[in-house]
Amino acid sequence: MTTSTAPTTAPQRPDRARALLGSVGGQNLSLIGALAVVVALFGSLNPNFLGWDNIQVIAEAATIAGLLAVVQTVVIICGGLDISVGSQAGLASVVSAMVFTAAGSSAPAGIGCALAVGTAVGLFNGVVIIYGRVNPTIATLAGLAAYKGVAQLVSDGRAQGYVLGDPVFVFLSRGKIAGLPTMIWILILVAAAVHVLLTYTDIGRNIYAIGGNDTAARLAGINLNKYLISAYALSGAVAALAGVLLTARTGSGQPVSGSEGLELQSITAAALGGCALKGGKGGIGGTLLAVALLGALQNGLTVQGINSFWQNVAQGTLLVAAVVIQQRRNRERAVGLPA
């Protein structure tokens, strides 16, 4: 008696293209498509837009906003918001330049004090939010005004110091490593470190858990207070680093000029990059793509000689569009309308 076996078929190979698209994510694909459209549009209007020199200009200009967007992503994933990052950067810029001058042109002293002040300010934000039981939006909105006021008071409302003759600040602003400007390398390193933290560590998983469901996270034994305060401290430290780069780039401490509006850019980039403003969702890759999109759009408008006020209009429009898309994807009920 012979036995017959059913023919077996070789397992189908997974669709590599589909797997690749799935790993990239629909949100990121949308950003890549939008970035390609912006680059193609402004490249056709002005061939110099696609030149390597202009690409470096875009990257350097986006570095400071990119640093703030990276830490804004962490804060938002935690379920918070930091509207004061621009003012923190301005305060750190002033501190770095003034201490540099007071310490006899000591760059380490200026940078160290700026980072310390930024971390302290971030810790203060976290303490006010947690132990003062103040809504993060209100607390950091107050910080936006307060830290800007402190920066203006200590600097008398004027640019302070002159750091362009110092080799450390010159290296930060004009130096290159392997052909890329130092500022871009700093953004890459910070973004990579935060990405690893969020993606491959228990700390990152706990951060997502807190933003996704803080009650469940608390019942699971996660110390919410410690994580939230640490997130705001990290935000302050990186905002201070952005302030130091602002000092290096402009050659002096800037209490307002150069830092005003950075909070809007950071929130817009995080929202465009896929961060759910309620927390628990987001990633560094999408945020960086959004930073690149905003940088290319702003540079393209500038190159075409379009009024800079339109940049604010574009940012506001993109922020609203990002939130609307999130609400639609999450099937949120419209305000004031029945479900």
Features:
339 residues; mainly alpha; two-stranded antiparallel sheet; 2 strands; 1% strand
Task: Describe what this molecule looks like in 3D.
It is a single chain. The protein is an all-alpha fold and 339 residues long. The protein contains 14 helices and two strands, in the order H-H-H-H-H-H-H-E-E-H-H-H-H-H-H-H. A two-stranded antiparallel ribbon has the order 1-2. Helix 4 packs parallel to helix 6 and helix 12 packs across helix 13 (284-303).
Q: Which percent range fits the helix content?
A: over 70%
Q: Mean pLDDT across all residues, rounded?
A: 86
Radius of gyration: 22 Å
Q: What class would the helix/strand composition place it in?
A: mainly alpha
Q: Write down how many β-strands occur, each being a DSSP E stretch of 2 or more residues.
A: 2
Shape: globular
Main sheet: which strands, in order across?
Answer: 1-2
Terminal Cα span: 67 Å
Oligomer: single chain
Strand residue percentage: under 5%
Main sheet makeup:
2 strands, antiparallel
Return residue spans where pLDDT drops below 50 for at least 5 consecutive residues.
none
Order of helices and strands: HHHHHHHEEHHHHHHH
Task: Provide a concise account of the structure shown.
This protein is mostly helical. Helices cover 71% and strands 1% of the residues.
Write the layout of secondary structure elements.
Elements: H1 16-24, H2 26-45, H3 52-77, H4 85-102, H5 107-131, H6 136-155, H7 167-174, E1 176-177, E2 180-181, H8 182-200, H9 202-212, H10 214-219, H11 224-250, H12 262-272, H13 284-303, H14 309-329
Helix pairs in contact: 2-13, 3-8, 3-11, 3-12, 3-13, 4-5, 4-6, 4-11, 5-11, 7-11, 8-9, 12-13, 12-14
